[in-house]
Amino acid sequence: GQSLEQPSEVTAVEGAIVQMNCTYQTSGFYGLSWYQQHDGGAPTFLSYNALDGLEETGRFSSFLSRSDSYGYLLLQELQMKDSASYFCALFTGGGNKLTFGTGTQLKVEL
Amino acid sequence: EPEVTQTPSHQVTQMGQEVILRCVPISNHLYFYWYRQILGQKVEFLVSFYNNEISEKSEIFDDQFSVERPDGSNFTLKIRSTKLEDSAMYFCASSVNSYEQYFGPGTRLTVT
Fold first, then answer.
1. What are the tens digits of pLDDT across the range B7-38?
2. Which of A86, A46, A55, A52 has its CA nearest to residue A70?
3. Which residues of A touch B98 (CB under 8 A)?
4. pLDDT tens-digit profile of B51-86?
5. Of A33, A45, A96, which has the smallest distance from its Cβ to B31's Cβ?
6. Which of A91, A92, A99, B105 is 20 to 30 A removed from B55 (C-alpha atoms)?
7. Contacts of B50 in chain A (CB under 8 A)
8. Are strands A84-92 and A70-75 parallel, antiparallel or unpaired?
9. What is the distance in angstroms between the CA of the first residue and the CA of the last residue of chain A?
10. Per-residue pLDDT reduced to its tens digit, A7-66
């Protein structure tokens, strides 16, 4: 099976940069995804890394290192609206499913 | 922008009753999924559906669960005999490429 671990909570200041880490164990996967979820809302796709390295989409960047079984999501120019939970998820074959991590709750303060 | 829709938004049912949760995926998507999230916990995979059949199902998806795509637009999850532990938010998701999944707003199922 797969397992993913994330820090439970991160606090940062508006305008700052924050990095949220994800470590995983798996016997095989296609890639690592990141989703944002506001309280009471649905997960929203942010980024996907099929290969090692950095993927950038606007203020969001995601990194994957398969050799270290590690990834992170980087948010720049933090805004209050970024306060949410962020989940990493392994995308695996067979059913092309997502296995989600435990999630990091990001709190952005003034 | 196209979006996944789900009905109802909230369903309250008694233990042992059958429920059907409904989803309308994005129209040109080919991959369909059901996930659930117990309050305060992570999102858990239930089942994936492609080409009119189940691709994979999790250990949670036992004989009490079934999925159907009765027509070209709807995708349903049926729980035959609900248990207290089935209380959760159920999310439908769809995808055109399978890795970028679009989630619906969810149905909150409360079993009493």
1. 999 999 999 999 999 999 999 999 999 999 99
2. A52
3. 91, 96
4. 889 999 999 999 999 999 988 789 999 999 999 999
5. A96
6. B105
7. 96
8. unpaired
9. 41
10. 999 999 999 999 999 999 999 999 999 999 999 899 999 999 999 999 999 999 999 999
- Contact between B99 and A30 using a beta-carbon 8 Å cutoff: yes
Number of C-beta neighbours around residue A16 at 10 A:
12
Chain B: residue nearest A31 by CA?
Answer: B99
Contact A96 B99 (CB under 8 A): yes
Considering just the CA atoms, what is the radius of gyration of chain A in Å?
13
Query: By three-state DSSP, how is residue A71 classified?
Result: strand
**In three state form, how does the secondary structure of A36-91 look?**
EECCCCCCEEEEEECCCEEEEECCEEEEEECCCCEEEEEECCCCHHHCEEEEEEEE
Number of CB atoms found within 10 A of residue A35's CB:
24
CA angle A29, A34, A39 (to 5 degrees): 135
Cα separation, A22 vs A51, in Å, equals 16
Residue matched to tokens 């695996």: A92
Q: CA-CA distance, B51 to B103, in Å (whole number)? A: 19
